[in-house]
Design goal:
43% of the residues lie in helices and 14% in strands. The protein is globular. Strand 2 (46-50), helix 3 (55-64) and strand 3 (68-71) form a beta-alpha-beta unit. The N and C termini lie close together (6 Å). Strands 3-2-1-4 form a four-stranded parallel beta sheet, with helices on both faces. By secondary structure, it is α/β, with parallel strands linked by helices. It is built from four helices and four strands, in the order H-E-H-E-H-E-H-E.
Length: 107
Amino acid sequence: ADEALAEIARERPHVLVSDIGMPGKDGYALVHEVRGGERGVAHLPAIALTAYATADDVKRASAAGYDAHVAKPVDALTLARTIVGLVGPTEAEPSCDITRPIILADG
């Protein structure tokens, strides 16, 4: 989580994809810190990619600040559709700046 926060501070990505169950600082703490640092900057779309997949887990991820929840195991198409759904078709077009990273926080 700390590495993801450092990368986000260094170069803001299009989207954050984060596991919930990370050692040390978990995904809930990560997204909480991301949301706390958003004052005056654009909202960073965040996806919880996790094995915690009950209805309560989905609600908890949303309450923590995630914009979407994707249960593991996940196929690439589901994840890609979720990302495009959050960043919008303009960001997903080939003409967009593909040099901006997508931050994957998995502990």
